[in-house]
Amino acid sequence: MRVLGIDPGSETLGWGVVEGSGLKYSLVDYGTIKSSPREKFSKRLLKIHNGVQELIEKYQPDALSVEEAFYAVNVNVALKLGQVRGVVLVLGEKAGLEIGEYAPRLIKQTVVGYGNAEKHQVQEMVRLLLRMKTVPQPHDAADALAIAICHFHHAGIQNKINQAKLKLR
């Protein structure tokens, strides 16, 4: 299975591609899609749309793993993040990808073992889990890789639950 992890952001969107099966996975590639805060927000959304669409076409993932929205102090930030997530989720649905959405605390708990882990702790654990020589930079890309890793850990469990529910019917 190949998973495209997305850490949504309207100025810096992190992405990471991880492939494998079960709890054995390896790095394919990672990076960011950057937008200028001076651009109109609609132009930034278009840039994100086009960038994520190119990633889906280039890497042909089986699944899309996205960080869920979190509660932001600034309502405008939360609204913009929701719009970015919407663009990404629609692209995943349009491509027919399996979609997983994970809370930030669950991602940190899964990758680091502590739901309140700091950015540098997530980066270091991603480096170790993917056997990288250096920590992935910037942290947005490391977060995206962590989100993809989280999908490997939780998607299999969810599939087993869904199969068990089908058998009960």
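Above is the first protein from milestone M3; the second protein from the same milestone is given next.
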Amino acid sequence: MLKDIYEKYYYEQNYNCAETMIRAANEYYDLKLHDRDMIMLGGYGGGIQTGNTCGAILAAVSVLSMKYVEQKAHESKDIKPVTTALIREFNKKYGSVLCKDIKPQSFDPKLRCKYTIETACDILEAVIAEYEKTK
């Protein structure tokens, strides 16, 4: 499971939520991203550093893009339904996709965003598994 490998990035290597998600997913799904590729998600942490859309969600959407977009998103029949499902599940869980709304529900000062990242791992895996059944 994706959630079984994220801790080494989050706690041992001190990456933020977005960096953790993309690095763990790169390993788990064998996305073949290079270290330099994953750096571009660094600014997504903390809700794009402003409490806006949760970095774990943005990274999960990036994973979906890597899995379901060949060249251009608007040419992919897959990216919209999987992204829509992902966002729907986050809204069901937290009532929002904004870091500023999610954080009060799941942040722990000692564990930081552990619970949000675990939720993101679970939702991402479930969305991919469900979508793959329909393909």
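Note on the second protein: The chain has one domain: 2-134.
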